[in-house]
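[step 3/7] fold_predict: job queued, chain A
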Amino acid sequence: MNTRNSFVIGLLVSLFSVTGSCAQTKPAVTLSPTRVFHSGHVEMRGTGFTKNADVYSHLRRPDGTEFPVLPMRTNDRGEFTHDIDTLLLSPGVHEVWVEDPKSKATSEVVRFDVTSEQK
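[step 4/7] structure written:
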């Protein structure tokens, strides 16, 4: 192998190393369950956020209005859990998303349905 080929291979290896180390996990939020009776609970889990940092949870009602933003703190792995008590929520589909101001990233919007009927 000549010097030029060695240089190109070394450059490509360096490029892939830098690209891989710069890749960041997009913040994600999951809910369980996604359909719940109005006096139940929904567990919200977040992953991929900045470690040991403040993040901000948004909760939108079925009518499109939003509750006040709820600050939360991530752990040393960039994760959090939060219990959503649905007792005072109106029936219908609610939307949740979480923003991470340090990384300037926001999770996808996830939805859960509050019902007035028992399963």
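[step 5/7] annotate
The radius of gyration is 21 Å.
Strands lie at 28-32, 35-37, 41-47, 54-60, 70-73, 80-85, 92-100, 105-106, 110-115.
exit 0
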